[in-house]
């Protein structure tokens, strides 16, 4: 059995290809490691000079140290893949770009991805498998659930509470709440690209615009 560490990026779409260089930079610079893409619908042997494997091939790979970063934007899919890894006794790990800034008293669950130029300020609690894409920030006194996704350039101001599986679109702005009345984004809610959220968003709702309002389907 090989002692060499092998790091798998689960997902080879755009986000996976953005995450892979961070994995290489932060975890796999040494000769005693390897990096691969995981893709359940494998269609090529190599992508950007990294081998592509199915999950089953990864399971069978002869290494005692196999770890996975899940790079899939859909939180529900992330949950399914995380459970799949846990069932196979393969550890899901967090990855943090070198330009990420983190200040005081921040608690973050396992499986997080923090891309370049992201920021956590102070006194923040974040659940498992959080995705924070480039140029996004989370300000003071925020509480974020599990499997939440921030697209690029999300501005999450202080005293905001976000439920599990919420998706916050590119360039969205979440207005600052107060200690006694935080702004609440409900579980499974979707905040559209460029939306400015000034009021609570109900669980499962889709909001768009400035100020953000529920999406009306024609």
UniProtKB/TrEMBL annotation:
It comes from the Bacteria. Residues 9-84 form the PglD N-terminal domain. Pfam families: PglD_N. Belongs to the transferase hexapeptide repeat family. This is Acetyltransferase. It comes from Parasphingorhabdus flavimaris.
């Amino acid at each position: 059995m090989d002692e060499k560490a092998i790091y798998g990026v689960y997902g080879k779409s755009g986000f996976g290809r953005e995450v892979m260089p961070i994995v290489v930079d932060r975890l796999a610079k040494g000769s005693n490691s390897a990096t691969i893409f995981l893709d359940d619908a494998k269609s090529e042997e190599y992508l950007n000079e990294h081998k592509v494997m199915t999950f089953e091939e990864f399971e069978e790979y002869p290494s005692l140290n196999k770890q996975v970063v899940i790079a899939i934007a859909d939180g529900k899919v992330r949950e399914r893949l995380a459970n799949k890894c846990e069932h196979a006794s393969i550890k899901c790990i967090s990855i943090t770009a070198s330009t990420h800034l983190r200040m005081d008293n921040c608690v973050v669950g396992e499986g997080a991805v923090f891309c370049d130029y992201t920021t956590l300020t102070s006194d923040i609690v974040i659940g498992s498998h959080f995705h924070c894409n480039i140029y996004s920030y989370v300000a003071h006194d925020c509480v974020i659930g599990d499997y939440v996704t921030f697209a690029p350039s999300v501005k999450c101001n202080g005293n905001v509470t976000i439920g599990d599986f919420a998706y916050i679109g590119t360039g969205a702005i979440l207005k600052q709440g107060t200690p006694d009345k935080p702004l609440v984004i409900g579980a499974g809610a979707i905040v559209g690209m460029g939306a400015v959220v000034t009021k609570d968003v109900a669980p499962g709702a889709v909001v768009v615009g400035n100020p953000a309002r529920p999406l009306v389907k024609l």
